[in-house]
Design a protein that fits this description.
This protein has three domains: 2-208 and 415-427, Aldehyde Dehydrogenase, Chain A, domain 1, CATH 3.40.605.10; 212-401, Aldehyde Dehydrogenase, Chain A, domain 2, CATH 3.40.309; 435-464, no CATH class. The strands form four sheets. The protein has a seven-stranded mixed β-sheet, with helices on both faces. The chain has 17 helices and 18 strands. The protein has helices at residues 2-16, 21-37, 39-50, 54-79, 115-126, 140-152, 167-175, 187-200, 222-234, 251-266, 286-301, 334-337, 353-361, 376-379, 395-398, 418-423, 447-464; strands at residues 82-84, 92-100, 103-107, 130-134, 160-162, 180-184, 203-207, 212-216, 244-250, 305-308, 324-327, 344-350, 365-366, 368-372, 387-390, 408-409, 412-413, 426-434.
Amino acid sequence: MMHDVVNRARTAQREWALVPVRTRAAIARRFSQLVYANQPEILDSIQTETRKNRLSAFEEAVDAAQQAHYYGRRAPGILRSARRRGAIPFLTRAVEHQRPIGVVGVITPWNYPFTLPASDVIPALIAGNAVVLLPDAATPATADIVERLLREAGLPEGVLTVVHGGGRVHGDDLVATADFIMFTGSTATGRSVAQKCATRLIGFSGELGGKNPMLVLRDADVSAAARAAARSCFSNSGQLCVSIERIYVVDELHDRFLTEFAEQVRAMKLGAGFDWDIDMGPLISAAQFDRVTTQVADAVKRGATVVVGGSGRPEIAPTFFEPTILTDVTDEMQLGAGETFGPVVSVYRVSDDAEAIRRANESEYGLNASLWTNRPDDFAPLINSGTVTVNEGFSASWASHGAPMGGMKTSGIGRRHGREGILKYTESQTVASQRLHGIAPVGQQSNRDFARMLNWLLALWNKVS
């Protein structure tokens, strides 16, 4: 089945690659407008499939629209052929072109069923590729809306194919036939996918797991950090790769921060449904609820202290787990070093700024870090993370679509957004044209005289260029 799907996509791609890049980019701009026009339907679909609160669904839809607008405006310039320095001044003309790879396979998870497919599919399409999208089996309808709106925006038939059933059913077949794979999911699965891509010598990009730290340093605005922590830890019920799961607070600010943070969390409106006032909704599934419950129970059993939350709330929804703050967490606990992917955060007291940075860097992950200080230029370069969001949790870096977003260490390879987010879907091709004479001795010139002449010419060129 997948072999036939990819072959049909490959046939469609040949014609699609001949469409001018500005025409392809215009489809992305129209898609952006259609997202805003169809926003209520999109939010309803996201919430129905994921159970997240409406504000989190809104943020997802707006993010997809703005990313599409960015590439719709900027992609033609990014993909434009460019002159490069040639071998011999005035005699060699070198031009770099960006060529589409072919068929891009995109495998997306359930936690952001609209923005992740859109964010990965759109730059691949503008770059001239065809795309086969495998959305998670839990969120098929929302992915179908992405495809439908792209069609309404003018995308030709066959250039984008959505195959339902998810990566577990079709992932291996897609990796075995596509020309490039974009994957979002766990580090363990990402490693497996990357290994299979390496066997075929095809490109791979992956946004993988995270155990993202917040660092509240000595000069931080404690109240602002406490307010932001409530959103940064519990947006989308903590089910996002860039969510904050551990907070390091310098000793002299720790007690005040913990008190204010706990007050913010206790004031959150919890619920299920489409009410805009709900601050946090249920987890997506019973399996995710069980994962969070098991990790919290293990931590408490091993000595962790529950400051706020710590339990399920079946009267709200069967899969609702309270926003939870823990202290006294150690790496021996399941949630100490491993990703929880739920509404749970651990707060740690540290002696000074240096210890906060050291402990933040001790994780195997390096996706996002939240840094609270008035001296970001001094501290941000010390943090081993793909994005460092200063005096905010994660939204500022994620929503900066002109800047690359991705992970260091085991949090991934490759980048979304910015130039890197579209160039990864291309192959660079250099066309070098030589005129008047080749790079070789002239007439009866000896090799030694040729070398002397070339040394003189290049030395002169290096002085003026």
